[in-house]
Amino acid sequence: xxxxxxxxxxxxxxxxxxxxxxxxxxxxxxxxxxxxxxxxxxxxxxxxxxxxxxxxxxxxxxxxxxxxxxxxxxxxxxxxxxxxxxxxxxxxxxxxxxxxxxxxxxxxxxxxxxxxxxxxxxxxxxxxxxxxxxxxxxxxxxxxxxxxxxxxxxxxxxxxxxxxxxxxxxxxxxxxxxxxxxxxxxxxxxxxxxxxxxxxxxxxxxxxxxxxxxxxxxxxxxxxxxxxxxxxxxxxxxxxxxxxxxxxxxxxxxxxxxxxxxxxxxxxxxxxxxxxxxxxxxxxxxxxxxxxxxxxxxxxxxxxxxxxxxxxxxxxxxxxxxxxxxxxxxxxxxxxxxxxxxxxxxxxxxxxxxxxxxxxxxxxxxxxxxxxxxxxxxxxxxxxxxxxxxxxxxxxxx
Amino acid sequence: xxxxxxxxxxxxxxxxxxxxxxxxxxxxxxxxxxxxxxxxxxxxxxxxxxxxxxxxxxxxxxxxxxxxxxxxxxxxxxxxxxxxxxxxxxxxxxxxxxxxxxxxxxxxxxxxxxxxxxxxxxxxxxxxxxxxxxxxxxxxxxxxxxxxxxxxxxxxxxxxxxxxxxxxxxxxxxxxxxxxxxxxxxxxxxxxxxxxxxxxxxxxxxxxxxxxxxxxxxxxxxxxxxxxxxxxxxxxxxxxxxxxxxxxxxxxxxxxxxxxxxxxxxxxxxxxxxxxxx
Lengths: 398, 278
Description:
Number of strands of chain A: 4
Largest sheet of chain A: 4 strands, mixed
Oligomer: heterodimer
Strand content of chain B: 15-25%
Largest interface: A-B, 45 and 49 residues
Number of helices of chain A: 12
Distance between the termini of chain A: 89 Å
Shape of chain A: elongated
Strand order of the largest sheet of chain A: 1-2-3-4
Shape of chain B: globular
Number of helices of chain B: 9
Distance between the termini of chain B: 44 Å
Strand content of chain A: 5-15%
């Protein structure tokens, strides 16, 4: 009858060839120590199978205290059942201790197979794990500060390199593949339209909804068109689109480059003499810089449409009147402002995510961390840059 | 002892319409070292994957101790799989864990041993493969050969009944490769484990394999059964002969699947004896 594979079915370690198929749990592993004059004998009994149950008691302390007149250690395995590496680990430990104490380790009573396996193990002491000291909090702050400054510097260098190579790319002299650029353009452009549409439409609708409710109190409902149009064009559409793209495309760039790092693909590029900036970073930066302003404009339009939908539903106004109001309220300069900002957002997101990808470690967890970090840095960077633009525009009187 | 521990009956492996191997029949006896041989790209690793549960065969049965593996439900398959130990071709170490943690993870998950016992067992496994000094290193810090040895130690973690080794000697220096051969022999003789080995390394195959099967990339099936030494000495198939004697095949007889001569002669056996020099 075919037996089922239960733990304990196989019989690996007795001195006869394995023929019997035992079922059910085995006897627990035990050892007893007998002292006979100058000899200590370990009596081993039961089934010494690692996966079946608790290990037998530790022998270290027992032999630590010297017993007078003890010169050798022997083994009695007459009642030993099945065994696997649990027995080997035990014997190895006893052998090391015997070596330390200068006792003779008599292998005679052990199963022959275990003696062969034991002979493969040497007695060098275990390598101590390297002590990774926990840094003090002052060191942590210092490291974080110098790290941030280093990264800002590295990003500036990367920006400079990419700008120079972009010029070369226009003349067709960069080591960038056209198909990579097209791939990235598609990914950062048309492929992102669905999410940009959804997000901006909803944002426009929300703005209109809140606006109508509040402005109704001041009998100034008609200004909803102004509110939606100006808010979207000046700030919201640009920032929301940038945040969405940071999450979507920034994370993807970082994860892709981090995985290439782990697969040694970056090493292979460098060894082949293909500059990483040209081959990987340049298409990503050009693509995102080119598509971000276009997505912004598209987002504005969709957002106004969203506001329009809500306003028509909630107010007593004709569609044409709403759109006319919007057109008169938002000067063209606002769109230009948003356009320029979006250009900068695109470059920022692409540069930071590529840089973070290249700095990633080489494990699976490191790829995840790189993607997360790229998204966070991208979003925070976009907001910070937006604030700088706002302050700058204010200072210039716009 | 009479019942084989593993048996493949009429196995066909395919990825969609592309058939990798078909009508595979062979038996692995308990406590033997079984070699799966063949040219590159013939599907040796794929056969391994179908036995350990990673690829469902398109046809045929995999019998583990007489029980149909793929007919069982997932829980049963997992239970059976726990008695297997696998060394993957690229070691497949978990990159976020140290070597010691890699080897210890199966022990932590599937036994009730305490930390001290687990550490002792991990030490034994690492010492058997000669990786004791690198126990606290991460896989990304190791060389290719070291990663392979760490993967081997992990395959041994639960003292499985059947071990599957996919190219265990690839990337190892001759001394370490010889040591690995000795270890494999000890595992068979000491623990009585059965070992299924995919390997190209002829010296190892000749010295340790008890039995084997030779897969052909051109006809996509097994063309010879027997130990590597027996095949070398008695086989008349030119493809098998060329493999065992490390000789070049003539263009028409090649069994390579990647363009080193892929004319299909409809399975004709040329019966040409390779003449030895001198």
